[in-house]
Structure formats: structure tokens, C-alpha cells
Fold each of these.
Amino acid sequence: MSALVLGHPKISAPLRAPMVDGADHTSPASDNLEEAYRVQINAAMEKEAQRRVTESHDPDEISRLEALSLVELFETEDADLIPALMARLGPVRAALDGHGGALVVALATIEETNSRRRALSLVIDLDGACVSCGAAPGTLKGIQDDLLMDSEIIEVRFSSEMLEWFDELQRDFVLKHGGVVFV
């Protein structure tokens, strides 16, 4: 089975060909080829992730959860809050599911947006083996980006307690290059 079918979101195509003698020998044609390859791989990975999520979760239930108001679920302390948050995740959900992981809301508050709508400010923790995985920086960024697509979420940060699960190299990497905030 190829790596493409298994899906490896942490593997990406090289951005540019190596430089020789200090000169950049890439051409517009090679840039176009790299971009076409990147788009094709991303589409295949997203399709595979969606297939895995659909196999593991009822699409009707996902639709029901996506239709629920996150603010109302939080206010009423409804048990559907976590499933509703999980339903809003894109391809990163397949990675969480694959490691037996799930979101944990460590802290949430309701904030008012500039347009005077109420939205959640979240501090997220994770459970399952997904936290100690080498793909964690990409997983965290994917979670953040997917959740921020929802109009009822204004901010996503991560619990600093998660940093204790990483070794020193992983911790330094996620803090410097992860694109997420820990509190």
C-alpha cells in the first residue's frame, strides 16, 4: 500500500529544487509541476481522510452535530459539545480518530465579536496517543484552522499541559514552528 493511500499529512512535497553554485535552477515549468503535484496529493489525502471519517462515523449524525449551536451547547453544558467540535474538523479528524484521540475543552468562555455576535474562545487539550505523535504540530494547526472556520469560534489556543507530553526536541519544534498558541 502506498504512503498516499495511508495518508501522511506531515509529508509534503519539496518547495524548491536545491540550489547549485548559489544559483536557483528552477524554472516556471518545474514550479508548475510542483504546484500541480501538491494540489493532487492534498486532494487525495483529503479524500482518503473523508473516507475514513465516513467509515467510522454516521454522516447523518455528523450533519446533525454540525447544525448545532456551539454557544448554546456550551451554555447548557450539553454532552454534544465535544462531538459537535469534532464534527467541525476536516481531514485532521481522521488523524485523531486513527490515534484514538479526541478534543478536550480545558477552558471556554463566550466572547462578543466585532459584529456583536457571541462566539467561543477555547483552550483545547487532546487525549489519546495523538498528542505524542510526531505529527502533533500539524495536527494542532489543523485543529485550530478547522475550528476557526466556524463562525461561533473566535479563538483557539491549546493547554500548555500538553507540552509536558513532548520530548525536548518536539516541544521546541512545536513552540517555534507549530503556528499555535499554548496557555
Amino acid sequence: RPGGNITRLLLSTVSDQAFVTLATNDVYCQGALVLGQSLREHRATRRLVVLVTPQVSNPLRVILSRVFDEVIEVNLIDSADYVHLAFLKRPDLGITLTKLHCWTLTHYSKCVFLDADTLVLSNIDELFDRREFSAAPDPGWPDCFNSGVFVFQPSLETHSLLLQHATDHGSFDGADQGLLNSFFSNWSTADIRKHLPFIYNLSSNTTYTYGPAFKQFGSSAKVVHFLGSSKPWTYKYNPQTGSVLEEGSGRADQHQTSFLNQWWGIYHRRILPLCENIRNKDHQGSPGHTTIGWPEIETCAEVRRDPLSTPSPQFADLREIQSYSV
């Protein structure tokens, strides 16, 4: 059963609401797994859903199913005509259009989306008291929201309108954030109640840019977002010393290191045990660090497919990624 290898707290679950994330490949599954487990550890009372693309391999789907309540495949190429048409007209928005599939989860009345490179630091169930479209300001341009964390209400009508908007107008940043800001264009002025505090989407790399503010409010952070090209899984981590190093870049910022240590602590303590059938194909890590191998699991995850998608071909074997542990 989903979550069978993880001890779950006996909590009443609101079955018609969900936390949702997206994993587009095996690498981002690492982030999704830690995110899901961080929600579990902070006693989330909503269901956990992960959307996956055909690029996510079967073994990773099995592991995802042990953390998430639903693993749902979304496939643009084989989707209904209007989705496929949008993709053909705007192939540059492939990943963006994939993320929009979260609006098709109409068996839920309300959802909170979190990017796979976020980490939950405390219970955030109160976000379900917010309305669509609630999000936190983007640190780079506060009149825009950051699309790494947002509250939404699944709706096929909204999904269709978003696809039409993407087809007609594209995205000013080439990604989902530009598209969503263009679609929900009155976010900055219409209703201040839809402005989430920055503590719900704290950029890990702004802790030194806004040092005084972080010192004042950082302890209240509820969700940290690892923006930029350096993700937790691109670092080396030695649990014996607690040191986190970016390959070729020395130590990370002090505050960022604290968040990275929390991420790796969950990965090492809770996710690696799920991979007990791991077989390391290569051992390329430096002394004291071992490249994480991938599991060869005989059973197949029971995966729910989005009603707009059709079965995809057999998935490729897992590829090795550059994340490290001892």
C-alpha cells in the first residue's frame, strides 16, 4: 500500500484536498520524495499527490508511491486534442503545460502546489483557508508572485483557459511563472488576502541578500525554496560531519547550509531506507562519499493516469545522478 514503508502518524485526513507537486524526471523525484516526507513529518492532514511525466522510471514510481497517496502520470503528447494542440503551437512551453495539469485534479476541491525543490519546515495546513490564486511575492520582482507555492482550485474550465492563454500569449519568462502571472494578472492589486507571507516561499539564496530581514523573520519560515541551478541533490553531504559542499564551489552560505542539512537529513534518514534494494552501479564519489545507486524493484507501482493521457511505452532504466551520501 502507499506509504507502507514509512511510519505514518494516525491523523484524520481531509480527503477532498491535497498537496500537489510535479516530478518531470528521476532527478527531480529526489526533491519530490523529500518534500513529501517533510509534509508527513509535519503532520499534514491533506492527501499528497505527485504528477509524473513518462520520463520518470518505474522504480522511482514505486518509491514515490510509498510517500505519496497518488502518483499520477501526465503526458502532453498523448493528451486530449486541445492539450496536444497547445503543445504543438508552443513546444517551448512543454514543462509549463505539464504543470498546468494540476488544474485537472477535479476529484479535489482545493489544492496547494509546491515545487519539487521546496522543503516544508512546519505544518502549513492553514494554506487551505486561502483562496485561489494565493501565492507569495517573487524576491526578484515583488509585483509578481513566485509560482513555487500557490493555492488553487482544480477546474477543467480554468485548465482550458490557461491552455488557450498559453497558446495565444506564451510566457514572458518562458516558464510557468510568467504564464501564471500573465493569466492571474490582477494578483498584485486585487486582493491582499491572496498575498502569502514570504515565509511560505522563502528563497534559500536570499538569506544573505536580506540578512537583517532574515535575522528578524527567518525563524518563522514555513517553506524554503531552493531557487537557482544549485539544488540540494547537486551538493555533497557527509552526515558524520554535517558538512554540505557544492561540487567545486566550497561551502554554502551559513543559513543556506542549515536548510540543505535539513533536506539531506530527511533524505538520508527517511528516503534512503526506502531504497533498501539499491545496487550501486558505480562508486565515483570521493573518499567518505558514495554515489547513490538506484533500486531494482521487481514489483510495479500502481500508478493512476490522468484521464487526459494514454498509456506510454515502457520506461527507461534509472540513470545515475550526482547526489552523495556515506
Amino acid sequence: MRLRAALIGLVVAAATGLLGAAPARADTSDTPDPAGMYVVVLRSTPSWASARALAERYGGRLEQAFQTALPGFSARMTAAAAGRLAADPAVESVQPDRQVRSTGTQVDPASWGLDRIDQASLPRNGAYTYPTTAGNVTAYVIDSGIRTTHTDFGGRATSGWDFVDNDADADDCAGHGTHVAGTIGGTSYGVAKGVNLVALRVLGCDGAGSYAGIIAAVDWVTANAHKPAVVNMSFSGTTYAPLNEAVAASIASGVTYVVSAGNDGADACGYSPAGVAAAVTVGATGQTDARAPFSNAGPCVDLFAPGVGITSAGIADDSASRSMNGTSMAAPHVAGAAALILADHPEATPAQVASALGAAARPGVVTDPAGAPGLLAQTAPSSCDVRTDGADVAIKDRGTVVSTIALAGCSGRATWVSVEVHIAHPRRGDLVVELIAPNGVVKRLKSSNRHDRAADVSATYPVTLSVKDRTGTWKLRVRDTTRAATGHIDSWTLTVA
């Protein structure tokens, strides 16, 4: 029987290597762990054959090629060979691979996290209300795998790839990944109760794994993600540049990443992937909204979420549960909240999702944030009903016109707006289109462009903003910047969340 350990956070069991400069330099000052394994960053993306040829040229054996999130590969070789490889002009850097390991204890209290993230303040009301189940979103769990047969997943959990055994069965024999997946999308334990869950196994039964395997998983997501998508990474270790680069590149490809801050009570900026600026980094709080003593903090932490005594799915059998502590437990609350946002706004970029999460969070709630913004994660309010104004509004030469939509009965702040615009005009490049919120905030949707001589505007514009009250009159303002052409606003549709 496979070992089933109680896992919470992740720490790196060795110091970080140095990132080489031009010419590249291999860090061979201490023995890599796993022994003889190196991560090689190249100046251009390799094919599998070219990566293997380069590794073998210096006496190495190729293990994995990275082709989407990070150009490079991992290989086994001697320290001397790594030094020679680093001098090759095709190489950016060579670093020893490092081992990642989990640690923690099991606790008994019942879960309370769902009850906390859907309301503004204490005391909790004993219920969790959610606007959608996010059935159109996929959550990728880079962890110890998932027990996909667990009843709380209702058949929505599947294996992506196992980077430990190098096969397609990412079953969980450690328990950490199943717990995380349950908080993201379990029917009973989850924030997004209909999200599709995909397991990417990078940690073995003992909770250990390597940066090379994690980078390979990030590379896999970048190449294969079914969007809209969110990735949860509930582990952290001292800063490792190749991993940070891979995560940043994957985010740039359009995938939102939520990562745990780490459990050392230290500055999260010194950890990977917590220090990746474009990722959403999450610290942990307890039941009184105080920062958990173990939680990393500092300016790289974007949000806090419940992370003490969190009950979720276990692996003892297909209905098992367990309670755990850690920023590993906090991050999936936010990954689930991100899935809810993506469900309503599947076209949202990672930056827009991060902005919406920040706008929905409660400021000044977390006590002792230790240099981090004291924002407590909240699920965003549901969208107001979609409203459309279909009345034609004439656009005269060099004139400015306004069309309005009034919203009533929409409580809560606006964090996300989608504006679908249809304008009939022979020269759309003449037009400037803007949205004006009820509080007077102006967001430009389209600028004029004298080189664009095509006709008509038919587009949907996602807008990120923070307006205290969604209720009021929203305006679409259109300005014609040149003479000799007229047109009209045909219709526009407003969705406010």
C-alpha cells in the first residue's frame, strides 16, 4: 500500500542555485538533489531531439524537454559536464535541480473556510452562498495528484499527467493534492462546486518532488490548458529563477495562477513561486481573521484566505475527509474564487482576474498582515442582469453622443464590466468609444485610428474597475473625430459584476 502522509505546505530541502549570466555559468558548488540532475535554460526553444543531442554532447542524459513555458531541459550529468555545458553558446544558465518536500500535521476541527469567504465580516452565518458552480472552467492542480474516484468530485476530476512516474495516472498517494482539489471544487468542500479538475502529479508518496518536474508540469499546462483555466500551486521553496520564469510565461499565455505564500513566517518575496509578480499569492488566516503565525507575508502576498483547520477530501477511501493547516489550504479558496470569476467572464485575462479578486476582497480585515495588504479573499458578487439598450442614437460629424443604461437593485461594488458594442459607421477609425460608470469614472474602450478605414464597430470589451455601488446610470459615450461620415449606435449590452 502506498504511504498516505499528512501534508500541509512545501519547503525546499536545499539552497537555491545561482542564475547564470552571459556566458552561462553552472552552479556546481554543492551536489544537486536529486543527485546529478540539472535544469538547463536555453536561449531558444529546443526540439526533443536537439535537447537530447545537446545533453549527450556533454555526457548527459536528457530527462525532460521544456518547450512552452521555459526554453530548456532537465538532464542527468556530472558537475564537470554541467560546467562544460554552461559554456555552450546556446545555453542561458545551468542550475542544480532541487528537491521539494511537504511537511505538516493533521488536526480535527471542522472546516469553516467556505462560510467565511462569502461574507464581509464576522460572525459567520453558518452558510455558503455562491453565484455559479463554474462548470465551464478547468482548474489544474499541480500537486501530489488527485484521488479522482472520490465522491466529492462527482466524476469531474481527471488525470492530466504524472511527472513522478511519467505516465497518465496522476493518482494521489500522499493526500495533499486531493485535499487542495476538494477545496477548489468539491461538491461539499469546494468553492467552485462544478469546476473541472485536472491532476498534474509532481510530488511522490513521500511528499517529495523536484523543481524540474514542477517546471515540466507548468510547461504541460501552457501547451494543453483548456481555457478558461486556473492553476493552483500549493507549495513554496526558496527562490528558483527557472520556475519563476516558467510560471510568468504561462501566465502570459492566458492562464491564471494562484500560489501559496509559504509556511515559514517569512517574507514571501524570497520564495518560489510565491514571488512571481503576475501570480496571485495567498497567505493564511485563522478563524478570527488574524494572520496564521506560520504564514509567510510581506508585499508579495496579494490576499489572505482561511488556512487553519480546513476540512476537505481525503484519500483513505472514496468518501474520506481530513482537516489540515497551511497556506496550501488558503490558496485553493482563492483558486476557487478565481474559477467563479472566470465562469462569468471566460474572456478575462489573468491580470483582470487578479484585479477582480483584489477588488472583491475585504480591506483592513486581516490583523497582523506583517507587511502584506490586509485583504481577506471574498467570492465576487454575482453579475447583475444583462441589460441592453437597442435604441438607435445618431452620430453626427465631429459630434459626441451618449446612450444610457440604468441599473437598480444591484447591491455591492462593481469589479468587472463587459460591454458589447454595435455601431454602424462607414469609418470606424474615426470613433472614440468610452464607458462612464455611475461615479463618473471613465474607461476608454476604443481609440480613434486614422489608418483603420473599415466599417462598423462590433466588439465586446472587458473592463476592470472598482466602483463602490453598481446601482446607477452607466453611459456609453461615442465621439466622431473627423468630418465626412456619419453613423449611429445600433445597440450596446452591459454586464456588471
